Request: fold
Amino acid sequence: MVMFYIIRGIVTVFMHIFFPFKVIGKENICKGPCVVVSNHLSNADAFIVAMQFKGKTKVLTKRESFSSKPVSWFLRTLGGVPIDRDNPDAATIIGLIKALKNGERILIFPEGTRNKTNAPLLPIKGGAALLALKGKVPVQTIYIYGKSKLFKRNYIKIGEPFEFTEFYGAKVNAEVIQKADETIRQKLLQTREIPIKKGK
Reply:
């Protein structure tokens, strides 16, 4: 854990210097276990989002990123969890649900890949909804307002956490996940609309 804080500190300083950003909605940060969802524009996103929270966040990361031993060590130290985006295995999903129930926090980019279009959000996939429903934890929305660029200030918007309480106790089937996905999409778009005050 000591190594985590050392590396996180270095990464935090690096990001603030080279990819500065202003956080809007800090008061909305979820303090307990939750599923954090964010739009996805660049490789810097995971670091920017995770550093908004205290302690380690499990970050779902495409399995291909762990092919190099040094990179794998770096990502795992910061909380990276390798996952097959097209066919996640049951053991990984079960482990993530247990982590939520044990009080941990998980970050997932529900678009599944980086958004290289002009659309504010790509279609949402069901992973985040499934974890939140099975873990019975809040969902925390974060919207990165633009792609991180060297020395250019960006805005990170944090929405209010919400829960799928209406589905607790119900069977988690395709219809429920679809409805939950749509809720996540709408909440992310609402977070995108949080105003940026002039001069801030």
